[in-house]
């Protein structure tokens, strides 16, 4: 089996307890076949102190990391990755900021990563690059003589061509991305958007199935939906400690029904829209007053980006407004928790909540939707209310699918979930669970690596 090299902006920490599902899955895969994980270590250093690599060995896995300088952090990470690529890929052109310094920094950091990684590669390694921070890495490795099979997985959506074309750097980025041998997308929609761009704007052609030819390169562009480790998440939700937490939740909560939302505090997750929908639920169905609570867990991220600070203020104002208008001394309608929660606590909270509210305005996949399903008690499961704009909605058809921009639509779905008879809940949950099992984390990783391990397509010669 060839050695696996994973490259991502951040390197997973094998010792970290809050580490999520995909990181654990990648680490397991690396341990199984031996390999290297390369990326930023999260540190910011003075360039005069040197920006060399550090290596840590964990069994047969080597973690190789590099720091960034303050300038890199501001321009590459906050500026280009999270201030331009992230909003464009999530259809938020209004929030995108494009500057020459930021795009130069993006090229610079990718070149530096390639410069440090190339000498560590052996001829037979297969290289799997993750996400939008590293689109030009394959081209930069090629320029340094690497002739390995290199794959790329995009965790976020791929927008329609007219949205992407608003980005000043789009031609350069598209030329760079087509240097990969395998490109993985979360959904058919993302894959179709990518293929449309290549065929309509770059003179490319589909040569067979999911194989594309463009500018002398032949590549596979396929769908590999990200998933979770269903059994381990389900087991976490059903331990005696989890039972105790659930009992505690029901004892200390004033309400009969708990609705839960868990998201990073990001404008793509539709949190203000979600709170407005909850307000509509209380207005349209006043019988829910003192009977229903929305628990929203939203830890802060990327707070240095203005749009993220704005969303935090908006959310705090909205939850205060709803609690002020509807709350009473014996009932707080919105409980807003602004921090990270250990995964076993999350699993218990999911199981103890009758409704899972996952309503992003746009999302690559959304693993919270899958975790909510995995955590339920099969005999008496809760109901998932899911945005049609989450990648997960392409598969999870038996959820109550909603338009997150339409507060009344989401409010009606919440009410339907609250009133849904047990038999219907069980039937929907069984169907959803089998879909979540089918597209689990192991299958995601296994199918991508099989595509990457396969010999180069004959047309590539
Ligand atoms: P995210 O948008 O970060 O990443 P998402 O799918 O929403 O990913 O998963 C977030 C993970 O963080 C889940 O495992 C969740 O349990 C955990 N989490 C969220 N809030 C938490 C909290 N308060 N405490 C502890 N854990 C918390 C990107 C894309 C997604 C895509 C994933 C995977 O944006 O669309 O699904 O990658 O490919």
Structural notes for this entry:
The chain is α/β, with parallel strands linked by helices and 461 residues long. Helix content is 44%, strand content 19%. The protein is built from 16 helices and 16 strands. Strands 3-4-2-1-5-6-7-10-9-8 form a ten-stranded mixed beta sheet, with helices on both faces. It has a six-stranded parallel beta sheet with strand order 13-12-11-14-15-16, with helices on both faces. A hairpin with a 2-residue loop joins strand 3 and strand 4. The longest helix is centred in the last third of the chain and has 21 residues. The model has no long low-confidence stretch (mean pLDDT 93). Bound molecules: adenosine-5'-diphosphate-glucose. The site of adenosine-5'-diphosphate-glucose has 22 residues, from helix 1 and helix 13.
What brief labels describe this structure?
461 residues; alpha/beta; 10-stranded mixed sheet; 16 strands; binds adenosine-5'-diphosphate-glucose
Radius of gyration: 23 Å
**What is the overall pLDDT average?**
93
Structural class: alpha/beta
Largest sheet: 10 strands, mixed
Q: What is the rounded distance between the termini?
A: 23 Å
Helical content class: 40-55%
Global morphology: globular
- Oligomer state equals single chain
Which spans of ≥5 residues are poorly predicted at pLDDT below 50?
Answer: none
Q: How many beta strands in the DSSP annotation?
A: 16
Q: Strand order, biggest sheet?
A: 3-4-2-1-5-6-7-10-9-8
Number of helices: 16
Q: Quote the beta fraction.
A: 15-25%
Bound molecules: adenosine-5'-diphosphate-glucose
């Amino acid at each position: 089996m060839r050695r696996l090299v994973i490259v991502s902006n951040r390197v997973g920490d094998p010792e970290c307890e809050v580490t999520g599902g995909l990181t654990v899955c990648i680490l397991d895969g690396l341990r199984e076949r031996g390999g290297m994980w390369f990326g930023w270590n999260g540190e910011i250093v003075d360039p005069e102190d040197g920006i060399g690599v550090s290596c840590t060995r964990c069994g047969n896995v080597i973690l190789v990391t590099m720091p960034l300088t303050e300038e890199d952090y501001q321009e590459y990470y906050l500026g280009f990755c999270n201030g331009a690529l992230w909003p464009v890929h999530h259809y938020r052109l209004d929030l995108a900021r494009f500057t020459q310094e930021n795009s130069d920094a993006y090229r610079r950091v990718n070149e530096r990563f390639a410069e440090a990684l190339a000498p560590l590669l052996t001829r037979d390694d297969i290289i799997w690059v993750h996400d939008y921070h590293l689109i030009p890495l394959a081209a930069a490795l090629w320029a340094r003589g690497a002739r390995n099979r290199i794959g790329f997985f995009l965790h976020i959506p791929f927008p329609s061509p007219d949205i992407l074309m608003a980005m000043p750097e789009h031609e350069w980025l598209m030329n760079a991305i087509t240097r990969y041998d395998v490109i993985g997308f979360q959904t058919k929609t993302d894959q179709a958007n990518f293929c449309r761009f290549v065929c309509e704007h770059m003179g490319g052609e589909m040569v067979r199935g999911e194989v594309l030819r463009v500018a002398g390169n032949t590549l596979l562009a396929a769908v590999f939906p990200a998933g979770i480790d269903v059994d381990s998440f389900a087991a976490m939700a059903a331990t005696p400690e989890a039972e105790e937490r659930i009992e505690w939740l029901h004892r200390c909560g004033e309400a009969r029904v708990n609705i839960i939302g868990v998201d990073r505090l990001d404008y793509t997750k539709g949190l203000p829209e979600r709170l407005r929908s909850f307000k509509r639920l209380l207005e349209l169905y006043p019988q829910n007053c003192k009977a229903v609570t929305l628990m929203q867990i939203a830890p802060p991220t990327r707070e240095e980006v203005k749009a993220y600070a704005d969303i935090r203020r908006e959310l705090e104002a909205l939850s205060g407004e709803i609690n002020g208008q509807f709350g009473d001394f014996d009932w707080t309608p919105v409980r807003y928790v602004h921090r990270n929660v250990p995964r076993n606590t999350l699993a218990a909270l999911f199981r103890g909540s009758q409704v899972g509210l996952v309503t992003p305005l746009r999302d690559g996949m959304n693993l919270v939707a899958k975790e909510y399903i995995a955590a339920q008690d099969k005999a008496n499961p809760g109901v998932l209310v899911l945005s049609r704009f989450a990648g997960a909605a392409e598969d999870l058809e038996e959820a109550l699918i909603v338009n997150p921009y339409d507060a009344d639509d989401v409010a009606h779905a919440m009410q339907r979930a609250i009133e849904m008879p047990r038999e219907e809940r069980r039937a929907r949950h069984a169907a959803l669970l089998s879909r979540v099992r089918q597209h689990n984390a192991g299958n995601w990783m296994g199918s991508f690596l099989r595509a990457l391990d396969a010999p180069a397509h004959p047309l590539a010669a």
